[in-house]
Amino acid sequence: MKKIYSTLFALIVVMSSANAQDNIAIFLDGQNMDYSSGSAAFTMVAPSAGLFDVTFEVHNNAANTQSWRITRSKISVPNGWTDGLCWGHSTDPFGGSCYSSTQMNANPWTSPGGAAVQFNLLPNEFGEMKPDFNPADGVSGTAHYRYYITSSSGTSFLDSVDVIIDYVASVKPVVKDPVNVVILPNPASDYINVSLTGIDNMSFKMVDALGNLVLKDQVYGSKKINTSEFRSGVYFITFEGSGSRPFVKKVIIRH
Question: pTM of this prediction?
């Protein structure tokens, strides 16, 4: 080969052997092959050397309404690797409730219950489960995660899908200047202004204190964000950019 690829990801989705249910189907987003427990494996090559995610559709094929939670179990994960998760109804414009690696620090970890984050799936509806993965710099190896479809009480595992990530570590791109983000004013009321230094542009997502996604966008140099309709409280903004590790800034909104 003329090129030596600096980074190799292989994402293998295989099914666990426990408790497959006829009334649950797990599809890769936009496809119609069932990858729930006991089905054939799905494989893909991850699109980049940085943070990436994969979306599954979790279908309710039962005759009655269901309310599920997600339990993530880290079967075997190299030191320093991080992961997150979003889980919500397919019609949720914000992608459901999202949880960072800091919030998911237990193993196993189950998404919270309660009216603020749980939702109903009518017969033939589906939820979207989107785990994300971020291998640590210089730490190669294989990570094995399992995602259970869990009862609303959080006590019963109904179905599951396994995710195995193979990663060959390499030197990632180096950013010459330090990357920094300044957010003013903070605390804020009607708006915040986000300014970048050391990088041209970054993508970001903003969540509230419960992990609910409220905004997802990109900033080029600087960006003014209208916060007049946001509820008063604490918000967290995760920034991601080429050659830079993701990092989080806290913003306080007061009206």
Answer: 0.61
Last residue of a domain, one of 168, 197, 229: 168
Among candidate residues 138, 159, 141, the one with its CA nearest the CA of residue 56: 159
| Total number of domains constituting the chain | 2
Contact 147, 57 (CB under 8 A): no
The answer to whether residue 175 sits within a structural domain is no
Q: Residue 253: how many CA atoms within 13 Å on its side-chain side? A: 22
**Residue 98 CA, distance from chain mean position:** 6
Encode pLDDT of 112-163 as tens digits.
Answer: 998 889 999 999 999 999 999 888 777 778 888 889 999 999 999 999 888 8
* Domain containing residue 67: 8-168
Residue 3 in any domain: the answer is no
